[in-house]
Design brief:
homodimer, 342 residues, alpha/beta, 434 Repressor (Amino-terminal Domain), Rossmann fold, 3 domains, 6-stranded parallel beta sheet, 46% helix, DNA-binding, DNA-binding (chains A, B), transcription cis-regulatory region binding (chains A, B), Transcriptional regulator, LacI family (chains A, B), Peripla_BP_I (chains A, B)
Chain lengths: 342, 342
DNA sequence: GCGGGTGGTCGAAGCGCTTCGACAATGGTG
DNA sequence: CACCATTGTCGAAGCGCTTCGACCACCCGC
């Protein structure tokens, strides 16, 4: 039996019903002043029976806090969709945990959109997904009168708060693992070429991490881009094995290509893991569904989203939190890696 | 050279700068009263130089319109992600076209979440994606004090505004096409079994449409659910061809399985389209990237999202629009269908 | 040339909430 | 026992905007 639903229940109705002042109701809700237990109970009861729900606009106006954050979607959809969704869900859930709601903006609203929602006090802060190395929204973010957190790193992250998986370490970690297993010829199959040319940070960072580790370990290693369709993957893989026949370990940083790679390798005479060890950088669910299951560095979208929100809330609350949060990559060994056979 | 950025520009600042009353500025912005061209120019100029952006909270409070709509994500992620994203983008873009922003809510906020955002006047209306046949959110929607539009149909759509592709017609249309090409044994490969048991409307409707058309055309036809992984698809397909060897036309309503089906059919001795015609119900981009390209009924996510917003805006503006909007399926013939060979 | 539109502008009253200062009523302290 | 902090509550002043009624010029028609 739901309460009657009058057209609009205001805080004044609650106050009257409970026999207290409007301000008292407000303080019960915000706990910014001490309220006696008896009064609190009474007010809470009135709120419940009347089905009072504070008016968001009025609250925002008076408190100068909208309790809403903006989430800006990626510029282009090169991003792996499942990761994107996970990230989104994590941000929304995280925000709700801090009593905030989430406004979404498509990237094509661009810098002006950011200004609009920020300057209209519609949102208290902004989370930008999938920032690119030279992203037109970044300068705007800097001069915005509201705090922001970036998921991903632009070329110059100074003055900004960024979160991401430490892809540099991730690339290196994969090499180290392969080297530890005795592999002396390794390769990185990365994102499609266009992703590098348009300057998406995580692709670059994985590559430099990979190459740095290759150099340090004094093994031979190459980093190739890789398209996403089966035919291109086949071509790329064939080329790779022809030009670098000593390759016995491959790192794949490309969710869409990973299935194809696993399927094609045996048909190119390389059984996994016996003849070829494969490590992916991808979400766990992708790694777990291939045969054999992939050893992988997971992309912890949930954690990234949660962190992004936490950082934004910290900025809203007070002194600036650390500028850069790099999550340490975790490598899970499954069945696609093995000691090098001699 | 951007204007100086004082801490907050209000409508009063604009009024003073332009030498008019606050209300005049408001009327320039809303055009709800006639304003002389001269004054308008002056006010607009002041707005531009001061970089005025109306405060969303104040506006919402005074006008009782937040200019925000809520978009509720699907309950479970059985939905094809690309479609979901397209839908989301279309809704956001559509909303912006009507000068509204979009708040996202994950489904696990549930009915209470809906009440919260609606009763707090945080949003003016609600769009719910991927409604299920018996959806706990539906009764809440009915008694909500704000208009809503559903994407998809619940079991009982009375009193609600719903939009969707006419999946019943889509299923029938595919059969008709195959029959017209001379096929007398057809099959529907649908969504995973769990999708039917949990009562997702579009899967059911496609099936009933398919079966009705089969009966009407007096051909033989079966409708099977179909899992999404390659192994299951192979099993299902093999079973199907064994138990119904006279099948020469297949309708696939399962984005994830469609690639596998196309790849597996030749290895089961059925070349497409020579031995087997295939029609998919899927987004165009999926249909276009297979070899051979798939004849398909497209799922017009953009159009659905646009319609949903348009309907919501209509409800906000005045008299209720049509309760049900069923988009007519369009079949595009590509290379996966052919006359039945005798 | 006078009454009645009508186009253009203003002032003020809210919208529903938060928050600040004020003020009883306590209770502990010297 | 007078004094001062505390604790709990209230009233009122905004927050920045929309909107309503009022008002003043006009211009038109008769």
């Amino acid at each position: 039996m739901t309460a009657k639903r009058p057209d609009l229940v205001t805080i004044a109705d609650v106050a009257q019903h409970a026999g207290v002042a409007v301000s008292t109701v407000s303080y019960v809700l915000s706990a910014k002043r001490a309220i006696s237990a008896a009064t609190r109970e009474r007010v809470l009861a009135s709120i419940a029976t009347l089905g009072f729900q504070p008016n968001a606009g009025a609250r925002a106006l008076a408190s100068r806090r909208a309790n809403v954050i903006a989430l800006v979607l990626p510029l282009r959809t090169g991003m792996h969709l499942p990761i994107l969704m996970q990230l989104m869900t994590a941000v929304v859930t995280g925000a709700r945990g801090h009593d905030h709601d989430v406004l979404i903006m498509t990237a094509d609203e661009g810098p002006d959109g950011l200004r609009r929602v920020a300057d209209s006090s519609m949102v208290d802060g902004v989370v930008v997904m999938d920032v690119e190395l030279s992203d037109p929204r970044v300068p705007v973010l800097r001069e915005l009168r509201r705090p922001s957190v970036l998921i991903g790193f632009p070329a110059d992250p100074s003055g900004l708060t960024c979160v991401d998986l430490d892809f540099h370490r991730a690339g290196a970690r994969c090499v180290e693992e392969l080297v530890a297993l005795g592999h002396r010829g390794v390769a990185l199959l990365g994102a499609p070429a266009v992703v590098y040319t348009r300057g998406t940070g995580f692709a670059h960072r994985t590559r430099t991490g990979f190459l740095a580790a290759v150099e340090k370990a004094e093994v031979s290693g190459v980093a190739w881009p890789c398209e996403e369709d089966q035919v291109s993957v086949a071509t790329t893989l064939r080329d790779l094995l022809r030009r670098h026949p000593n390759t016995t370990g491959i790192v794949v940083h490309n969710e869409a290509a990973v299935d194809h790679v696993m399927r094609l390798l045996p048909s190119l005479g390389r059984r996994v893991p016996r003849d070829m060890s494969v490590i992916a950088i991808c979400p766990d669910q992708v790694a777990e569904r291939t045969r054999p299951a992939l050893s992988s560095v997971s992309i912890p979208a949930d954690e990234i989203g949660k962190q992004a929100v936490a950082l934004l809330m910290a900025k809203l609350a007070g002194p600036p939190p650390p500028a850069a949060t790099l999550l340490t990559p975790v490598l899970t060994v499954r069945s696609s890696t093995d000691r090098r056979q001699r």
